[in-house]
Amino acid sequence: MSSSSAHETDAETLRRERILSSKLYFDVSPSNVSVIYSSAYDISFMGIEKLHPFDSSKWGRVCQFLVSDGFLEKRSIVEPLEASKDDLLVVHSETYLNSLKSSGNVAMITEVPPVGLFPNCLVQQKVLYPFRKQVGGTILAAKLAKERGWAINVGGGFHHCSAERGGGFCAYADISLCIQYSFVRLGLSRVMIIDLDAHQGNGHETDFAHDRRVYILDMYNPGIYPLDYEARRFIDQKVEVMSGTKTDEYLRKLDEALEVASRNFQPELIIYNAGTDILDGDPLGLLKISPEGVTRRDERVFRFARDREIPLVMLTSGGYMKSSARVIADSIENLSGKGLITMQPNPAL
User: Which residues are catalytic?
Assistant: First the structure.
C-alpha cells in the first residue's frame, strides 16, 4: 500500500471512530416532534449582529409563530447538543478550527467587521457557540428523519462553509458533517442535496466534489455571491435562476429539476436547504418569489420525498428580511395542514 493510500485509510478510520463516539446522535422521546431548535441558536452580541442583513433572531421567531399559532407545543421541540471539537474534526481540519480562534477571521466569515475587535472568548460564546448548536441540530436531524420520515432543523444550512474554508455567514460545514454521520451511523450510501437557497452552495459542492455517493441539485442565482466557478463544476444538476425571476417561472424550473433528479439518482436521504432569500425584496438574493411561492416550493420538495418514501431533512439556511420568519412558519404550517408532516407527538412511536 502506498504511503498516501495508507494515510487516507488512517484518516478514514479516525473519522469513523469520531463519528461512532459522538454524543450528537441520541434517542428522541416519542413526546417530541421532529422539529429541532434551541434558544441558543439566536445570536445576540451587543447589537453588532444587526450590522449584517441576516436576521440572527429568525430561528427563535419561527418557533414563536408556530407555538403561538397552536401548531407546536414548546415542550415537544427537540433540543440538540453542541457539536464538540471532535465532532467538527470529522470534516474540518485542525488548521481550520484553529483559524476560528482569531476574531479577525470570524469577522471575515460572518461579514461583520466589528467582530474582529472583540476578545476571541467572547466571539466563541456569542457567535460560534450558537453555530455549533445548530450544527448539532443538523446532524441529529438525519437520525430523526430516518426514524420518522422527516425532520426540520429550524436553523443550519451553512452551505458556504467547506472543510477548509468558511464564508458568507457560514463558519461550520453542517451539511457535510450531517452526511458523513449518516454514512457511518445510519449505514447510508446515497444522499441527495436539494439546495434551493438563492446562493450557490459552494461549501458542500467542494467537500463532495469527487464523492459519487452524494448527488447535488443546486438552484441558484449565478450573478450573486459566491461566484465560485470552481465549485460549480461539481454540481450534478445545475439550475440557474437569474435576478428578477418570478414565482411561476421559478416553480416551473423546480418541477422540471425534480423530475430530472428523480430519473438520475435514487437517494436514501434528502438534505433540503430551504433558504428564504429567494423572496421578493430580499437584498441579497435578488429574486422575486412571493411568500406563497415559498410555501408551494417547500410543499413540492416534501411531496417529492414522500411520494418516493425518502427521509427528508429541512434546513432554513439564508433569508435576509424580517418577514422571513413568518414565511417559514407559514410554510411549515402548510406542510402540516397538507399532512406532509405531523406536528403532534406520536406516543405509538
Answer: 160
